[in-house]
From TrEMBL:
This is Diguanylate cyclase (GGDEF)-like protein. InterPro entries: Biofilm_reg_signaling (IPR052155), EAL_dom (IPR001633), EAL_sf (IPR035919), GGDEF_dom (IPR000160), Nucleotide_cyclase (IPR029787), Rev_trsase/Diguanyl_cyclase (IPR043128). The keyword Nuclease does not apply. The keyword Ion transport does not apply. The chain crosses the membrane at residues 68-101, 113-132, 144-165, 185-216. Residues 659-688 are annotated as: Disordered. Keywords: Membrane, Transmembrane, Transmembrane helix. The lineage of its organism: Bacteria, Bacillati, Actinomycetota, Actinomycetes, Micromonosporales. Residues 258-389 form the GGDEF domain.
Length: 688
């Protein structure tokens, strides 16, 4: 990553340049003061060009500084073929000093680079000597083969020295297995094999040597293009940090003697910066966040931008969850300091999820665990959460279920096994069907039917949830279009997860679906939970406001089971609240449950919201809800969840039921319970 963040010049760098220059100068004089005194002008011309061209070395972004390609090897290789190792090494050392000063290398790295090229030239000279190479006479095919062998020896010797030095200075850690790019090897070979061509031209007349600069420029452009291509695939263009692909590569490199931790950071309320100051200011803020994280994270750890306002840190020296928490707290404190932006101090915080890696090389699993911990931190209102092996929703069985679901969602319906059931919602005052709720089922090829609670618990903390929501939304909107075409328009409610709301693009996806199927927005209703609201209220407010402006109704599901503040009912663009079934089921026998239900209905009435009761399963509960002024009922007393085809048949048989005196169940004389019998519904209640 040396090229990613250049260092600034300082006294230490100046001392390094002075020491390395003097050392290389002494070595060069010692080598040249003997046989080099009688060298021809062609040698001195090539030596001068070698030093000049290394003022602009070829650096592939993201590679180690010791893997830099020096254009001077073209001339030093030509020198070693014609005049031996000593003059070539002298020229190369002088060029290495120039390149090291240009790239602001430390003395250690400059010496490392010099050792590599010295060994490479020595190996090439040995091969040329053993092959009895002749460059001053007319060369033949044997000489060409010897030159190719000398170039191969040069490359092999340099790689060997680089690997040896890396092994000796790695403190016992396993060296990273980086594959050298084809462009690196091709550029090195091209420069080496250009050497004999340059040599022949120099022996004819040194005046032709400057023409080689054009070929060197072409090689430079090739290396630069390859570097930019590699950087685009492994680095984030906005911040210059490594991206998700680079993180996965790093996590796949296992360090057997150390535990590592992945810390996933999601910035809280970042969207408010975009709204208040514009996306340009938001981009600058992300860059400053990247700079601050890079400044506080040690060099042996990796800072990554995953995308949007998500960052990650791969900590490589973590012994236990407590040390991982200390790192997370250090990062949180660094981000808590205000960021000056256009004269305005911007306050930021981050929710951090931690996953520990010990002897496991599955990068995707580690990412899922860290992301799950991050969402857990948001839902609990904590800043840091650690994924633990005792987390029930992330057992191997659950992870296997999520993997199977991801595979199923790649198939086309109905081969994916996803099935939607619809449960009618009845207006209590009139008995009319005012809508339905779409409830999810999945027919697993081996497990059988997977219930919605188990399915959603496993999928919601993972990216698979967004794929599942997209699949459900498309089927529901298509069904709305079919009902509308059949002149039986119904409103359908769909549950969306916290992940969908936090992603921010669900409004665009819903709008595109409604436009594609020509469905009015008021026929679709989205249900959100209190847990999604608590995780990030500002982001949820932004997303729901966009949906409301489109005409899509928003319902707050399972109201009363979470910890949301009542001010959210006032601020959010809600159309209704759904009273959780745990209160409705017991209201006929428990005075406390009945009091809670009546309070929620009164609160909804005061705020101009509809109150919907879930879990209405008997006549007594239905009548109590009617007396309390509840607007809508949903439950087995009216109908169980059923597929769309069965719902169409049920609608033809259903007669509106209105509450009256005891014994007057149906104003039309038809019992609702009898109208539902024999339809083949599941034998036990299920919410989803």
């Amino acid at each position: 990553m040396d090229a990613a963040r250049p260092r600034t010049a300082g006294p230490r760098h100046r001392r390094t340049v002075i020491v390395s220059t003097v050392t290389a100068g002494v070595a060069a004089l010692a080598l040249l003061l003997g046989p080099a005194a009688a060298l021809p002008p062609a040698f001195w011309m090539m030596a001068l060009l070698a030093i000049l061209v290394d003022a602009r070395p070829y650096v592939v972004p993201g590679r180690r500084a010791s893997a830099v390609i020096l254009p001077s090897i073209c001339f030093s290789f030509a020198v070693v073929l014609a005049w031996g190792a000593a003059p070539a090494i002298a020229v190369q050392l002088a060029a290495v000093v120039v390149a090291g000063a240009r790239m602001r290398h430390s003395l250690r790295r400059t010496v490392h680079l010099g050792l590599q090229h010295t060994a490479a030239l020595g190996a090439a000279a040995a091969v040329a000597g053993m092959g009895r190479l002749r460059v001053d006479a007319s060369p033949d095919w044997w000489d060409a083969l010897v030159i190719c062998a000398a170039a191969a020896a040069w490359i092999t010797a340099r790689l060997a020295v680089a690997g040896l030095v890396r092994a000796l200075t790695s403190d016992g850690r396993v060296p990273s297995r980086r594959r050298r790019g084809h462009a690196d090897l091709l550029a090195t070979a091209a420069l080496l094999l250009l050497g004999p061509v340059v040599l022949v031209a120099a022996l004819v007349t040194p005046i032709l040597l400057p023409l080689a600069l054009l070929a060197l420029h072409a090689v430079h452009r090739m290396v630069r293009w390859a570097g930019e291509s590699e950087r685009a695939t492994r680095f984030d263009t906005l911040t210059g940090l490594p991206n998700r692909r680079a993180l996965q590569t790093a996590m796949a490199e296992r360090a057997p003697d150390r535990r590592r931790a992945l810390l996933l950071l999601d910035l809280d309320r970042f969207r408010t910066v975009n709204d208040a100051l514009g996306h340009g200011a938001g981009d600058r803020l992300l860059t400053r966040v990247a700079d601050r994280l890079t400044a506080v994270v040690p060099a042996h750890d990796l800072v990554v931008r995953l995308g949007g306002d998500e960052f990650a840190v791969l900590a490589t020296r973590v012994e236990d969850p407590a040390s991982a928490r200390r790192i997370a707290q250090h990062l949180a404190e660094a981000l808590s300091r205000p960021f000056p932006l256009d004269g305005t101090p911007v306050e930021l915080s981050a929710s951090i999820g931690i996953a520990l890696q010990s002897g496991r090389r599955d990068a995707s699993t580690l990412l899922v665990e860290a992301e799950s911990a991050m969402y857990e931190a948001k839902q609990r209102g904590d800043q840091v959460a650690v994924h633990g092996p005792d987390a029930a929703k992330h057992t191997p069985d659950r992870l296997s279920l999520v993997a199977d679901l991801r595979t199923a969602l790649r198939r086309e319906p109905p081969d994916d096994g996803i099935v939607l059931y619809y449960q009618p919602q009845i207006a209590i005052a009139t008995g009319e069907v005012v809508g339905v709720e779409a409830l999810l089922r999945w027919r697993h090829p081996e497990r059988g039917t997977v219930g919605p609670e188990e399915l959603l618990r496993a999928a919601e903390p993972t990216p698979v949830m967004r794929l599942l929501t997209a699949r459900v939304l498309e089927e529901v909107v298509a069904q709305l279009a079919a009902w509308r075409a059949a002149r039986t328009p119904l409103r359908a409610a769909v549950n969306v997860s916290a992940r969908d709301l936090h992603a921010g693009d669900i409004a665009d996806r819903v709008g595109a679906l409604l436009e594609r199927y020509a469905v009015p927005a008021d026929l679709l209703q989205l249900e959100i939970t209190e847990s999604a609201l608590m995780a990030d209220p500002h982001r949820v407010l932004e997303t729901t406001t966009r949906l409301c402006r489109m005409g899509v109704a928003i319902s707050l599901d399972d109201f009363g089971t979470g910890y949301s503040s009542l001010q959210h009912l006032r601020r959010l663009p809600l159309s209704e609240v759904k009273i959780d079934r745990s209160f409705v089921l017991g209201m006929a026998t428990d005075r406390g449950d009945a009091a809670i239900v009546r309070s929620v209905i009164g609160l909804a009435e005061a705020l101009g919201l509809r109150a919907v009761a879930e879990g209405v399963e008997d006549e007594a509960t239905w009548r109590l809800l009617a007396a309390a002024g509840c607007h809508t009922a949903q439950g087995w007393f009216h109908a169980r969840p059923m597929p769309a085809a069965d719902l169409a048949d049920w609608l033809t048989r259903y007669r509106p039921v209105r509450p009256g005196k005891r014994g007057e169940i149906d104003s039309a004389g038809t019992s609702t319970t009898s109208s539902n019998e024999g339809a083949g519904w599941p034998p036990s209640p299920a919410k989803r």
